[in-house]
Specification:
Two copies of one chain form a homodimer. By secondary structure, the first copy, chain A, is of the alpha+beta class. Chain A has a single domain, classed as HIT family, subunit A, CATH 3.30.428.10. Chain A has seven helices and 15 strands. In chain A, the strands form two sheets. A ten-stranded antiparallel β-sheet of chain A has the order 3-4-7-9-8-13-14-12-11-10, sandwiched between helices. In chain A, helix 1 crosses helix 4. Chain A is globular and about 50 Å long. Chain A starts with a strand and ends with a helix. Chains A and B meet through strand 1, strand 2, strand 8, strand 9 and helix 2 of A and strand 1, strand 2, strand 8, strand 9 and helix 2 of B. Strand 2 of chain A pairs parallel with strand 15 of chain B.
Chain lengths: 345, 345
């Protein structure tokens, strides 16, 4: 059984999840579930019985569940970091604080085709993936034990992906991750002072400044942040204020899919198909929090959902991990210019 | 010229250092200075003229500077992330805040021998490396522009090392890194409440609990933290309260070297020579801060220096980077037990 543990120095929760299956003899090997290029893939069409039963699938009408004919399919993670059953069981452990590893861990299989990377997919299929994120995140947010529902994608082994078949993941957490809590604090302070959204202000400034813009569409902005931690770090966000990704409408999903496809194509060409991580920074889930605090009352004004996309083109050095302080060898202005100008069509 | 930029959402400073030499055509290649196994190594004995002139060296008496005969040698980083000359030049840039990339970036060449890893070295030489850290960190702390002097080591390519020859680094920063500031905040709150050091309390509790201990000596504790972010994360700290690493005495340096050697030997055997990062979490430098704030007045009681050692045996997934929330598949109790029991002598 996995467990959440609180670090009293960094004031951060960590999931200790030994049941993911790593044993002493294989500590220095890769994570369970890893597959090489030629190995059997449980995510490919026809192998639906090799995953846990599906939670959601978009498939041709009339085709039965857990069989062929799907376009996007969501299944529970076979090696979940957190389990859906049980109570939070908050407790003190000697000097420390712990709680049960309660949550959810799902996999969005983005396509039936093993080698169809996100950058190759049709805009329609990308929109379908966002639709799956929306449906599952909406559903998980109903559970008042969950404080945060995290949607993300790891692409490439050095970005943490253990299966090559294109997939994303959703993790529902009983706590709000520290970085999200810090972003929210900044945004809240800004709103209290100015009655304006911090993110809206920044996006507006970036559109005026122009030098860090990759692409601005009617609905979305794609840009490289002023203080980018990583080379070619990219943010994508709705231009109209919205705190909750799950409120996204179909038309916006298409527009988001279009912009993401363009960004991924540019990244792939510019950086020779780099590994990357994509994270949806959504609003915390306040279903279970409302009764606890007035802190959340202005959440819909404070927060602005956005996607953070970070290619991993240089190894992260030790002091970044240990200090929270980053050295980025590529200026975001240079990165944005390069991405804007590279020809992909 | 590199620049420090402030992230208004994460409230974190980032160094944008384009002068480190990465150009668009090589964005997806490794960092400058990388060398393969067989390539020329500027850190080997006999190649002293291929580095900038040395800042410090421990060598046989009578041997001239910048020549052979040294045991440990400190030189400026040829591709510094920060430069020593100039003023901080704090300024607003449109919506944002920036300051000049002022600091220092030095390399400790730990041994004349290319293939003598830290785990192979004599205790005497390890103590010599700590002595070099102490001397250089003491010297850099005299500069009131520097708020923090960071000593660290990247071992192995996937831990960010770009040269195989054993070396450590020192970076002097005009700001205190965010994680250090957060640790200090926790420690300060604890001290104000209890008039006891948070770190001392934790180390004492760990010695009593025992299950996460790797080794306790007269002077030092080596253990795996309760909420370890990474598999086999290890902390090493002095058992007697001390806020400042640079106050370490010769006898303690030997004792520290002994413990570190043992820990590194155990790690190497347990995890098949894993890449790792080692960071000295020292006290912030208050030479330039005293005049600004009472916050620092109790620093010597609040802070407790320690070493954080994090092997990199699994790739870090996307959501860890993006959220500050970690999943660790190996419990620290299991890791400590495995490290304690593995035979290395």
């Amino acid at each position: 059984m996995s467990e959440l543990r609180h670090d009293p120095i960094q004031k951060r929760w960590v999931i200790i999840a030994p049941e993911r299956g790593i044993r002493p003899s294989s500590y220095y090997q890769v994570q369970p579930g890893s597959a090489g290029e030629d190995e059997f893939c449980p995510f490919c069409e026809g192998n639906e019985d090799k995953t846990p039963p599906e939670i959601l699938a978009y498939r041709e009408s009339g085709m039965p569940e857990n069989g062929r004919g799907w376009r996007v399919r969501v299944v529970p993670n076979k090696y979940p970091a957190l389990r859906i059953e049980g109570s939070l069981d908050r407790k003190g452990v000697g000097y420390y604080d712990a709680m049960g590893g309660i949550g959810a861990h799902e996999v969005i299989i983005e396509t039936p085709f093993h080698d169809e990377d996100m950058a190759d997919m049709s805009v329609n299929n990308l929109a379908r993936i966002f639709k799956a994120f929306k449906e599952r995140m909406t559903d998980l947010s109903q559970d008042s034990r969950f404080r945060y529902v995290l949607g993300f994608k790891n692409y490439g082994k050095s970005a943490g992906s253990t299966l090559d078949h294109p997939h994303s993941q959703i993790i529902a957490l009983p706590i709000t991750p520290r970085n999200v809590a810090m972003e929210l604090k900044s945004a809240k302070e800004h709103y209290q002072l100015k009655e304006r959204c911090l993110f809206c202000d920044i996006f507006q400034y970036e559109i005026e400044a122009g030098e860090r813009i990759i692409r601005v569409t009617e609905d979305f902005i794609g840009y490289t942040p002023y203080a980018s931690r990583f080379p070619f770090e990219i943010w994508i966000a709705p231009r109209t204020h919205s705190h909750d990704f799950t409120l996204i409408q179909d038309k916006q999903m298409n527009s988001l899919a279009e912009l993401l496809k363009e960004v991924l194509m540019r990244l792939r060409k510019a950086l020779n198909n780099p590994p990357y991580n994509l994270i949806i920074h959504n609003s915390p889930n306040i279903k279970g929090s409302k009764k606890r605090s007035h802190y959340w009352e202005t959440l819909e004004y404070d927060w602005h959902w956005h996607i953070e996309l970070t290619p991993k083109i240089i190894p992260t050095a030790g002091f970044e991990w240990g200090t929270g302080f980053y050295i980025n060898p590529v200026s975001p202005e240079e990165a944005a210019k390069y991405l804007r100008e590279i020809e992909v069509y």
